[in-house]
Amino acid sequence: MRNALAQTLYEIAKRDPRIVVIVADISPAGAMDDFRREFPDRFYNVGVAEQAAMGLAAGLAMRGFKPFVYSIATFMLYRAFEFIRVDLAYQDLPVTVVGMGAGLSYSTLGATHQAVEDVAVAMAVPNLTVLAPCDPAETAECARWCAGRESGGPVYMRIGKAGELSLTENSEEFSPGRMRWWGPEVHACGDVCVLSYGPIASVAAGVVRELRSRGLVAEMALQPFLAPLHETNIIEKVLHYFDHVVIIEEAINAPLAARVKGLAVDTCMGSRGEDDPSLVIRSFALPREFCPLHGTREELLDHYGLTAEKIVAALR
Amino acid sequence: MPENSIERCKRYRRHILEISQQVEAAHVAPAFSCVEIVDALYNEVMRPQDIFIMSKGHGCLAQYVVLEDLGKLPPGDLDYYCDPRGVHGAHPDYDVQRGIHASTGSLGHGLGIAAGQALAERLKKSDARVYCLLSDGECQEGSTWEAAMVAANLRLDNLVALVDCNDFGGMDRMSEVHPALHPLSAKFAAFGWEAVDTEGHVSGDIVADLGLLVNGCPNALVCHTTKGKGVSFMEDAPIWHYRNPSADEYEQALREIG
Hints:
The complex is a heterodimer. By secondary structure, chain A is α/β, with parallel strands linked by helices. Chain A is built from twelve helices and twelve strands.
């Protein structure tokens, strides 16, 4: 995902001189090296100084630039949180903060490096758009959207690290603000709709495949835009037409599930009618704890029951 | 005879006192310590393309009265200070039309934003300068020094930090809370800035020092001031960081300012 981000920013920067990249001693490498070589005036490594990175980005945005700030997600959102809140969100500036290696990506480095409460925290901040692409192609789409806007405020984009498989080819087109159906042929109603975002959507895809192999009509809606959340989309496309909704997140506090359940209670149950009380919403997310284990990301997800096999078993 | 800086600053202080009688939300003393600095910048030093950021947002009344005086604020704007009908609160909110180039109030944010604006102006090949007024209290924030480090290494010689060094925070003397941080000019110099000390209530000194900025690095002017300057019972009394003058105190303060 970080290579896709670097490549995309490099391509956009060739056309748009307002793109500036600020990194805090961590670079996405790949095409970012070309970016740095070709546009030395628009690439800044401020060192291990995340608060200064946000201030610098805010000042640049105020004078007409479109900064992207990049580092490991924990250090972007947590270390510099008040600078994201005040400098970027309160002043509503077009700065994209990329939090790399979110979720359990840094599976061997311990909880200091794991951004698992970032989605819940970021979704709480006014003006802050929260994006969570699921694969390299969607990361590129998100970066293009962030760079292409002529208005709008800050973005927190949480991405994985490297090696994520392609998931979105042949899926519904990326549409800013909205969910998108996964895969080429989609049933607009059915037994199960899985909602997911971020790299764990590949696990969610495994769940859908397994359910289909058992004869169920199962679909997946990818939700790269978490805030602001397109509530009507979820109500009208998902809650009205599927009997089971399964939400899979690599985050604690199940931030998307909390919102979807709230929407169901507020609006959907009634509209389905009292004679149709069959909507069931199931949430699979990380528990509210600092992960005590070290291992591969897959081993940590398995520990938390976040594998396709374990989720399907739990759904029975 | 045109009004000189001493008369202007008396008028600004009287106006700040008047505003303090409208609502219970004025930081009078922190504004009084920087009246001459803000006056010198806006009335003597800054060109139309230059930018001022009030990083010590709690001193914003000093900026508001000067902006009003210069016609940057629409007439009557300050009649609704801290009032739902108005736009100005007790900390500045980003509003370029009104000459407010950053939302501040949370300390330690202004210098980083100012550095970003200075960098942007350099990238645009503009000759604009960015002036940023800090409190000595916010020099205790780590983020101030992150920004100082980055600004020096980017050689932002179009960035000027002014420190309103009144030696008081909300409670104690700054130089007693963190004696090792002082003298501040030496700290800025250690971070790669050109730093000079000056008397912060003498407009002529501030203007003169701002005429001697060096190229190749950011410049800091550490202005030695008195919190609550001009009113005997406010000077160097921590309670006046927040406190609003009563009607009697207001009358006395007006008399002292003259």
